[in-house]
Amino acid sequence: MDKVMRMSSEKGVVIFTKSSCCLSYAVQVLFQDLGVIPTIHEIDKDPECREIEKALMRLGCSKPVPAVFIGGKLVGSTNEVMSMHLSSSLVPLVKPYLC
C-alpha cells in the first residue's frame, strides 16, 4: 500500500491503468481533452501488479483500474470520474494541474 500511496502522490493527476483496458484509455483521453497530462502507471507492466491491485481495492476502488487520484486523493474509477465530469465538478478539481 505504501508504494501505491507514494505513486499516487507523485504528480497532481495520477491514473493507475492496464495497457489493455479500454476504460483506462477513455479516462486518459478525458483528462487530456481537459488540458491535463496525467501520470500513467500501467500496473500490468509492474512486477508487483497483484499487490498494487489489492492495495487499490483496499483504498476503496470498486475495480482496480482505472484508479484516478487527484492531488494525492482517490477520486475513483470510470463511473466516479465520468459522473464528476457530467456534473461539472471535475474541472475545478483539476484546474491547478492544467497545462
From TrEMBL:
InterPro entries in UniProt: GlrX-like_pln_2 (IPR011905), Glutaredoxin (IPR002109), Thioredoxin-like_sf (IPR036249)
Keywords: Cytoplasm, Redox-active center
Listed GO CC annotations: cytoplasm
Keyword Cytoplasm appears in the UniProt entry: yes
Domain of life: Eukaryota
Stretches assigned to the Glutaredoxin domain: 13-75
UniProt keyword annotation of Cytoplasm present: yes
Location of this chain's protein in the cell: Cytoplasm
Family the entry assigns: Belongs to the glutaredoxin family. CC-type subfamily.
Alphabetical list of NCBIfam families matching this protein: GlrX-like_plant
Name of the molecule in the record: Glutaredoxin domain-containing protein
Organism whose genome encodes this protein: Brassica carinata
